[in-house]
Amino acid sequence: MTPRRELYTLVGADLLSNLGTRISVVAIPWLVLETTGSPTRMGLVAAAETLPYMLSSALATPWADRFGVRRTSVFVDAASAAAMAVVALAPWLGFGTLLLLVAVAGGLRGIGDRVKHVLFKPAAERAGVPLLRLTSAYDGLARGMTLFGAVLGGLLIDWVGLTRAIWIDAATFAACALLIGVLVRPPAPDQPAPREPYLRALRGGFAYLRTDRTLLTMLVVVSASNMFANASVAVWIPLWVDQVLGDPAGFGLLLGVFSAGALLGNLLFTVFGTRLPGRAVFALGLAISGAPRLLALALSDDLVVALVVTFVSGIGIAAVNPLLGAALYQRVPGPLQTRVLGISGSVAFLGLPVGALLGGWSVAVLDLTPALLVMSVVCLVLTVVPLLFTRAPADRPAPVAPTPA
Known about the structure:
Number of strands: 0
Number of helices: 18
């Protein structure tokens, strides 16, 4: 297999597992609702998956280095397939067992996502594909898969039933494990990962991230951006739609328009991104994607205005993840990539649960319109101002990996 085909296979396998995950995002809450009728238990299941995902992304990476990144990817995807197959039996196994299985699946998926992304860099280098173009194209495809998977999940429940829909999710993980296990054969790295005790290896990842202020700043502002994005989706936009439009279709329309803008932005950035100044584009993308959406909801009752601003915000967000991904690949030494990428993923996702709490608290204290006005200013301060005190986000060579004691 040619290097370029191997890269396409690796990215395609990862997107296939993402498709399965999107199906389960729809199917599992529906399973809980059908079997328990409890919204509280639906929330518990969501938390049971999210927390292990964040923890394993960071804490399991030293073991992945020791076991081998490719082998870890194959193993966790095969185990995820088995876990999801058993989830389909949850109505007969009880709610406690379902919580445990979902937690296991979330933990496996956290480490699986991180190690597959570590494989992207050497595969892109062998194929001669610029890293920024790869991260941009992948981000756009992943967003498209998110949209398609959510719709497909609902259709599959209607077409083949809830249990079979979850089995299809399991099959996507199995196919991903098979594709990477059979078709992806990366050469041995020039610098093998240091053989270190677990805690020393984990500390090494955190220590490196602390020394790179540019990367750390990028991760902090992306985490803040995720916080406001999740608050918008979980609280602010639904409330605005309910108070202004009174039609839940408007909620889906706003989310769909944002995703459409992001897809267009990804297409443009994939073509032109390598010619643009990274630092300025990163800051501009964050400035456009966050605060203007909140201001539009606070200052206007016109759906068309909200849709136009939301679409432009989607275009802005399209540059953020690719630039962050390229910076991680370019700045982090090869032997440290697994653990640093894992820790970075956890930091970036940390804003998601905080955002849901922030959205509810802000409205309870200030009411919706004042909350949107205040949070638009806070969003701009937290996501853009820190970047004014950092250097360019990428383009410097990664330093030599530290020698383990």
